[in-house]
Each structure stands twice: as structure tokens, then as C-alpha cells.
Amino acid sequence: MSGSNTSAPGSAASSPEPLSFAVHSLPDPRVATQQRAGRWKMFVVLAVCAAPVVASYFTFYVIKPKGAAYGELVAPTVDMPADLPLTDLQGRAVAAPSLHGQWLLAVVQPSACGEACERQLYVQRQIREMLGKERDRVDKLWLIPDDGTPAPALLAAVGQRGAEVTVLRAPRERLAAWLKPAPGRSMSDHFYIVDPMGRWMERAPAEPEPRKLKADLEKLLKASASWDTSGR
Fold first, then answer.
1. Buried b vs exposed e over 124-144: b needs ≥16 C-beta within 10 Å?
2. Which CATH number characterizes residue 208's domain?
3. Does the residue 42 lie in any domain?
4. Domain membership flag for residue 21
5. Which of 6, 52, 104, 105 could be 227's S-S partner, Cβ–Cβ 3.0 to 4.6 Å?
């Protein structure tokens, strides 16, 4: 009927409430681009750092310049256990990672070093000396798997200045879990070549020919020359 109020009951105001819009900021595409660029730069840096190491291993294991290795290559390489319990002859603990940074020509011989042991220590010294100017990149390591002490005369011989042997003790079972002899041989029959990152990578034959084993070391030193220098 004319004059009647057609508004819905309870609607005091005839005008609708204004709509409100919440405005959210959109991601800045420049930030995302910068993040992607940063990740790529990090990847490139890591690749550049790793490339010489990868190249040297590829060269020695795959390309094998100047013929096959004389010793038996270990593939994959075996890391020196970071918790390998090493001690010096005075019983002081030596952290295994402290041996990193140099190539190691290692032997495992008892403290009661007999004729075969002395001969191996002599060959160890001979091989390192034959490397000439590269010998400072190689350390000699004698690992003793018992609690005895070598004879004073022998310690004096392996401790000569400029030709020192690093002499450390380690439990036999822990060494055996890392360094493996050839079938039918014992750990003391071999030389073990360990790279500067603590990876065992080659086992020499028993009673090796020094010149042939030295040639293997020369190949390794040449292949790693771009990333390895003498001294830790």
C-alpha cells in the first residue's frame, strides 16, 4: 500500500555498508632473482674448488697416464676414521685429522721390529728420497699395533733430522678395519698410500720394487699438483 515502508524489518539504515579491501604486498621479483643468483654463485664456487680434486682422481683412476698403476688401487677409497685412537710413543693422544694435508706412505709394523720390519722402513725412506724436490709432499708413517716401544737405536735411525718417520700407536683391530692386506697376506706386508684428505687409495705389493712404487707416487703427486702443496 502507498506510503508503506518496504525496507526489511530491522534495517535501520537503507544505505549498504561500504566494502573493505585488504591490500597485501606481492613478492618482489627482484628478491627471488637475487636469491637464485646467489645459489648459482655458491654452486659455481663449490664446483671450482672441487674440480681439481675430481680431475686428479679421474686422471689417475680412469685415464691412468703412462700405464697402469704398479700397486693395487683402492676403489672406492677408504677414509681414515676420524676417531681412530692414535697415540704417540709417550702415550699422548693424536687426532687422526691432524695427519691430513700430506700424502702418507704408511707401514704397519710391531714395536719389536725385526729384520723384515727394518728393511721395510729402509725402503720407505729410500722411496721418499727418490722423489727429489717432491718429497716434502710425502710423510712417512709407522703405525704400531701394540703397546711396546721400539729399540732406542731404531728410534734414533727413524728420527734423523730431515728424514723423520711419524711413529704412532693404534689398536690392531681398528687398523684392520681401515687398512686391508691382500688375501693371504698380513697388514705388515704392504705399504699403504693415503692421500692428503686421509683416504687410503693404494696398496703396494709385498716386498715392492722401490722404483716402481716411486713411479706410482710420482703419478699421484703430478695428478694432484693443482690442489696439493707441501706442508699441512
1. bbebbebbeebbebbbbbbbb
2. 3.40.30.10
3. no
4. no
5. 52
The pLDDT of residue 162 = 84
Q: Which amino acid is at 116?
A: A
Assigned domain for 199 exists: yes
Residue 148's domain comprises 69-223
User: CB neighbours of 17 closer than 8 A, spacing ≥ 6?
Assistant: none
What is the DSSP annotation of 112-169? S--HHHHHHHHHHHHHHHHTGGGGGGEEEEEEE-SS----HHHHHHHT-TTS-EEEEE
pLDDT in tens, 175-190: 999 999 999 999 999 9
Q: What is the 3-state secondary structure (H, E, C) of 50-79?
A: HHHHHHHHHHHHHHCCCCCCCCEEEEEEEE
Greatest CA span in the chain, whole angstroms? 130
Q: Which three cell numbers stand for residue 81?
A: 676414521
Buried b / exposed e over 67-100, threshold 16 CB at 10 Å, is eebbbeebeebbebeeebebeeeeeeebebeebb
Using alpha carbons, list the distances in angstroms from residue 11 to 2, 4, 51, 127.
20, 15, 77, 103
Which residues sit opposite 103 in a β-bridge?
138
pLDDT above 50: residue 223: yes
217 residue type, one letter: L
Domain for residue 206, yes or no?
yes
Write the pLDDT tens digit of every residue in 57-77. Answer: 555 555 454 457 999 999 999
